[in-house]
Amino acid sequence: MRVYRATDYYDMSRKAANILSAQVILKPNCVLGLATGSTPLGIYKQLVEWYKKGDIDFSEVTTVNLDEYIGLAGNDVNSYHYFMKQHLWDHVNISPEQTHIPNGTARDANSECLDYERLITRVGGVDMQLLGLGQNGHIGFNEPGTAFDKDTHVAKLSKATIEANERYFAREEDVPRSAITMGIRSIMQSRRILVVASGVKKSEILKRAFFGPVTPSVPASVLQLHNDVTLVGDAEALSLI
Ligand code: PGA
């Protein structure tokens, strides 16, 4: 694992955006695995800026997102589909056919999971997967206790995740209780993984995930078994390492 120490959130975002854009420059038709949440916001902002300056071209890029809430349509402001359009897709030269995210309103969520897994295979697998890290150690919506061998599946959100995500919704009751998420096996099949973490609230879990035992109770700890992981953290997130 490579660790890049960034001074602050802005520096973390720039370093991670540099790594993603290097991937796009080296392989213009690459498949990027994308993530939502507050941590990647600065990365997307930076990528959009570089796109506007003519420094990065997404015309041949395909993207697959990690997860989506069950029950939220793509035009719901809290859906991850909406998030991606708002922060990246609508601002760069990527056509909608090249962007993929699970359908949270599919009639049959389980068959949507199978279709999504097939889609990842069909596009050739993920070249670089971006990951944030939940305070409980989750990656995607793979909550503590999730088996490492799961493909894309329907996941129940843990209490900790519901509480962490409540800030985006009017009321706690509005937070969806389940989601479709790429599984740990799907994530581990990515050729390269880029993990980003910011803030002191991530310091403890970062230490446990990357320097503690590999265990399903800390889903991100599985990343210790991947042979190409890059971690970009800011000083606060890396303060215990
Ligand atoms: P955050 O979420 O980037 O909003 O901290 C990360 C995650 O829960 O995966």
Give a concise summary.
The chain has 241 residues and is of the alpha/beta class.
List keywords for this structure.
7-stranded parallel sheet, 241 residues, 7 helices, Rossmann fold, binds 2-phosphoglycolic acid, alpha/beta, 3-stranded antiparallel sheet, globular, 30% helix
Structural class by secondary-structure content:
alpha/beta
The top level CATH class name: Alpha Beta
Average pLDDT, all residues: 97
Order of helices and strands: EHEHEEHEHEEHEHEHE
Q: Give me the side-by-side strand order of the main sheet.
A: 1-10-9-6-2-3-5
Q: Largest beta sheet, briefly?
A: 7 strands, parallel
Q: What is the domain tally?
A: 1
* Helix count from the secondary structure assignment: 7
Question: How much helical structure, as a percent, in the residues?
Answer: 25-40%
In the CATH hierarchy, the architecture is: 3-Layer(aba) Sandwich
Structural Rg: 17 Å
CATH topology: Rossmann fold
Q: Which descriptor suits the 3D outline?
A: globular
Bound molecules: 2-phosphoglycolic acid
Describe what you observe in this structure.
The chain has about 240 residues and is of the alpha/beta class. The chain has one domain (about 1-235): 3-Layer(aba) Sandwich (Rossmann fold). It is about 30% helix and about 15% strand. Strands 1-10-9-6-2-3-5 form a 7-stranded parallel β-sheet, covered by helices on one side. It is globular and about 40 Å long. 2-phosphoglycolic acid binds near residues 37, 38, 133 and 134.
